Amino acid sequence: MSNVKRKDPDAKLDYPFDWRAKTNGHGDSDWLAPDETIVSYVITVDDGITLVKDSENNGLVVVWLSGGEVGKWYKIGCKITTSEGRIDERTLHLYIEDK
Fold first, then answer.
1. What is the pLDDT along the chain (99 residues), one digit of tens a residue?
2. Phi-psi category of 59—alpha, beta or left, where left has phi over 0 and alpha has psi -120 to 50?
3. Phi, psi (5° rounding) for residue 24?
4. CA distance 43 to 29
5. Which domain holds residue 91?
6. Count of structural domains, the chain
7. Which residues does 21 contact at the CB level (< 8 Å), separation at least 6?
């Protein structure tokens, strides 16, 4: 699993899905073309974790998550559609542990 994060069950934290070009210093790849934008996105979360809120700004989708049970893994998906008609999905694997 390449996109793994850890969270305390009492924490409410933000997690990014960065679709922007690598040249911004944060993205994994030059995924969005220079003038391409995200026109819609869908966030999915496994039962047991709470999606508090989400937002998108200039190719960066941020989800706020709370809850979860210690010792369990949860999947959070981010599926986007772009102005060029491309569709893709990334998954964050979230492990809950006492910190």
1. 568 999 999 999 999 998 886 655 554 566 888 789 999 999 999 999 999 999 999 899 999 999 999 999 999 999 999 999 999 999 999 999 998
2. left
3. -80, -5
4. 21
5. 4-96
6. 1
7. 27, 30, 31, 32, 34, 59
